[in-house]
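USER:
Before I trust my own judgement here, I would like a peer's view. Write it directly below this note and I will take it from there.

ASSISTANT:
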Amino acid sequence: MRDGSLKYVVRTVAGATTVEGLYDLDADPGEQHDLRPGRPADTARLSRLLATWEKEVAPVR
């Protein structure tokens, strides 16, 4: 999920473990520095946007 230079990522690993990350692509294009600990409001906002988007798209068959 992108909003300006921010990118919120959720990955499911091995079908169970969820890995999240929040990155500023202008400052960190390689997505090496997770900003979630210092930006909880942005993390929550983008998480909500992603959840809303996932409800609106059709599931993959």
About this structure: The chain has a mean pLDDT of 91. Residues 5 and 26 are 6 Å apart (CA to CA).
